[in-house]
Amino acid sequence: MPQNASSSTGNQDWTARLTPTAARVVLVALVLVTAVLVWIALGITEPVRRAGPSDLDTYERVVTALRAGQGYYSALHEALLDGGYGTLSPLNWRPPVFLTFLSWFPSLALAQISLGIVTIASWLLAVTYAFRRGGLGYGAAAGLVMAASLIGIVGYRAELSFELCAGTLILISVCSYGLGVRWLGVAAGALALFVRELAIIYVVACIIVAIRERKWRELSAWLVALVAYAAFYAWHVLQLTALLGPPDHAAATDWLQFGGLVFVLRAAAFNGVLLAAPYWVAAVVLMLGLVGLKDVPRPAIAVGLYLLLFLVYGRPENEYWGALYAPLIALGMVFAFPALRSLVAAATPRRSS
User: Fold this and answer.
1) Per-residue three-class SS string for the chain
2) Regarding predicted confidence, which is higher, 8 or 20?
């Protein structure tokens, strides 16, 4: 039998504990915050892009060099220097896992098909999770909403996107947890970290929940993954440091940009079909997605931490970082309207006769 939202997550619907006055305050706050975000979104303009090749151009060049037999770090070093990237910061050097994996395919088209299969698997998990929580209606809604979010994988050279891959793995992790397959949740989340270091935010969210729920074996697994990644990243830094010389230079701008809500909204718009919509639509979807995640702690905490990070961290052209949590916002959209309904019910209790 399908489960309701609270039983599937192991958490009681917190709106049931709100007084009518508190529920009204929450509803008013949601309306005001959404209005502010929409107002800010209406004034967003496209940023000035950096000169030189794009990130995807650079990554494709590295994959081509790897297929020709060149070493990863020498290929990446040459591509970064020729592209005008700052090479003194390790943050500009992507670890080798993802691009090395892509180089194993005879063509990027086959790599895209492979990642597309993983994306379809994440879609099926999301649909199954939604069905388990609420039944056929939820499952059908998830099928449509998640397809609209995950459709980006069919885009031109989407297979080169670290963020799309990591975001899909994070979605697999969240849905695996929701379906009770915790080992797959840990494995997918850890793999997302090895693909893109910004997935550390999701890992932190999982650690917080594991501590809160006293899941000590799960906490141990996450700590082992963190230690393994720390050792891997230390080795990565040693490899790139050995190549640095006189031609290397720092980046022209730092990532600490304090882009505020403008950058947050531009990142939130990097979400499937929202790429073709006005920014104010992304603002509304973001708020609805957050409301829908109110009883699902891991994605809710992760998205909240990403939003806080992106208030201060990220260059204007880094809006594609939003792909890391975009599927989680889409998952929240599936449950947004029932969540709003429960809030309204808490704010307007029926009087007993």
Assistant:
1) CCCCHHHHHCCCCHHHHCCHHHHHHHHHHHHHHHHHHHHHHHCCCCCCCCCCCCHHHHHHHHHHHHHCCCCHHHHHHHHHHHCCCCCCCHHHCCCCHHHHHHHCCCCHHHHHHHHHHHHHHHHHHHHHHHHHHHCHHHHHHHHHHHHHHHHHHHCCCHHHCHHHHHHHHHHHHHHHHHCCCHHHHHHHHHHHHHHCHHHHHHHHHHHHHHHHCCCHHHHHHHHHHHHHHHHHHHHHHHHHHCCCCCCCCCCCCCCECCCHHHHHHHHHCCCHHHHHCCHHHHHHHHHHHHHHCCCCHHHHHHHHHHHHHHHHECCHHHHHHHHHCHHHHHHHHHCHHHHHHHHHHHHCCCCCC
2) 20
